[in-house]
Amino acid sequence: MNDIRPSPAMNWEKVRGDSAVAAGVPPAVEGGVSPPGILPGSWSSCAKSSSLDLAKNFASQKYFLKRRLALVVLAASAFLNLLVPPAGAAETLTPDPEGYVRHWLMLAPIALRGGSGAEAILKDQIQNEAALRPKAGDKVQAAGKELTWDKVVASTNFVDFNAALKGIHDQAAGYLVTYIECDADIPDVILAVASNDQGRIHFNGVDIYAVTEARQLMLDADKGRVTLKKGTNVFVFKVINEQNSWQAAMRLMDKAGAPLKNVRIKLSP
Question: What does the buried/exposed string (b/e) look like for 79-117 if buried means 16 or more CB atoms within 10 Å of the residue's CB?
Answer without folding.
Answer: eeeeeeeeeeeeeebbbbeebbbbbbbbbbbbebeeeeb
